[in-house]
Amino acid sequence: MVYYSKMAKVIYDEELLICHFYESLTGLTLNWYTSLNGFEMKKWEYMVDAFLKRFMYGLKKAPTRFDLQGIMMRNDESIRKYALRLRKMATQTYLFCA
Question: pLDDT at position 97, please?
Answer without folding.
Answer: 41
